[in-house]
Amino acid sequence: MNDITVPLLGIAGAMIVGAMSPGPSFVMVARTAVSASRGDGLAAALGMGAGGIVFAIAALVGLQAAFLAVPALYLGVKLLGGAYLVYLGIRIWRGAREPLAVSHEEGSPGDRGNGWRAFLLGMGTQVSNPKTAVVYASIFAAFLPREVPLGLALAVPAVIFCIETGWYSIVALALSSAAPRSAYLRYKAWIDRAAGGVMVLLGVKLLSGVRGG
Fold first, then answer.
1. How many CB atoms lie under 10 A from the CB of residue 44?
2. Residue 90 contacts by C-beta under 8 Å, 6 or more apart in sequence?
3. pLDDT tens-digit map of 148-188
4. Do residues 33 and 208 make contact, with C-beta atoms less than 8 angstroms apart?
5. What residue numbers bound the domain in which 18 lies?
6. Least crowded by CB within 10 Å, which of 98, 116, 163, 170?
7. Coarse DSSP helix, strand, coil percentages of the chain, rounded to the nearest 5 percent
8. How many domains does the chain have?
């Protein structure tokens, strides 16, 4: 049991700190929560958790080893991830001055469709960041034993999902309340441009690292 508990607690602690650090994921969930609905924000949080499972499984099967063995693979992932963040930032920026119809009713058919899109957007934002993949692989390499027990291999993705989904659900719940929503609607153009600019800068920073490796 100790063979599972100790590495699992180490991974969980490191991942909690990583999840709470600001980045594209936080920007996306925060904007979704204040601009759409609480349900959309929670759906985006679930997308973050699903993306975390993807990275957890990839790291368990040797993502870091693959990046080291095939440098072009990492460069390709960085290129695609950076381009996606730039595209997302431009979309947010261009829509900054568009009026927003805010729904206050949860559970309508329209909300279900928006929730699905928010889920996919959250998952796409999570998996588009190769630095997250490297962080996952590095943490796993630091805490996992050379031979990973089956119980630990099954527990790690579940714990990662709970951490990612839990943190971003807190973000969504906090920022979908009346006061933050009202402030967002009042200053929508400026907030969207700031959020879009941050996304573009993060994408450009990621792309600028492609040439330098």
1. 33
2. 196, 200
3. 788 888 999 999 999 999 999 998 998 787 777 677 677 77
4. no
5. 2-212
6. 98
7. 85, 0, 15
8. 1
